[in-house]
Design a protein that fits this description.
By secondary structure, the chain is of the alpha+beta class. Helices cover 24% and strands 31% of the residues. It has 4 helices and 6 strands; from the N terminus they run ββββααββαα. A 6-stranded antiparallel β-sheet has the order 1-2-3-4-6-5. Strand 2 and strand 3 form a beta hairpin. The protein is globular, with a radius of gyration of 15 Å. About 5% of the residues have low confidence.
């Protein structure tokens, strides 16, 4: 994602470009609000209704969902991220498709977005950046 995300979700609004029309994916993940977007996907705050935990749901943008190049890129991202175990790497919980758009379900990391932090503090030193 090209844009860092905070955990303050904007409410879901009907008719927003790229907005999913379902608020429950795979009868499990309830979307609660949009956190942000990047070059290929939008990210929503959600809840895993089965396990009762907060999640982030990354959904490929509609105009890219039909393009095999982008769906393959998302698949590789899922595989690469799922193979990593590190405190500074978000965990992948699940993946699927809804309304013919691929999505992945990620650990929701609470806190300030990187964009907000940089706006407040300026550049980060190396030690802070890798902490």
């Amino acid at each position: 994602m090209s844009e860092a995300l905070g955990t303050q979700a904007a409410p879901l609004e009907a008719g927003t470009e790229g907005e999913v029309t379902k608020d429950l994916l795979l009868d499990r993940y309830r979307l609660e609000g949009r956190l942000g977007s990047g070059g290929m996907a939008e990210v929503y705050r959600g809840t895993d209704e089965r396990l009762g935990r907060p999640v982030a749901v990354k959904i490929l943008l509609p105009h890219l969902a039909a393009d095999p190049t982008f769906t393959e890129r998302l698949r590789r991202e899922v595989e690469a991220t799922a193979a990593l175990t590190h405190p500074n790497v978000v965990r992948v919980y699940d993946q699927g498709r809804s309304e013919d758009r691929p999505f992945l379900v990620l650990e929701l990391v609470e806190g300030e977005s990187l964009a907000a932090l940089l706006g407040r503090q300026g550049s980060l030193g190396i030690e802070r950046a890798i902490a």
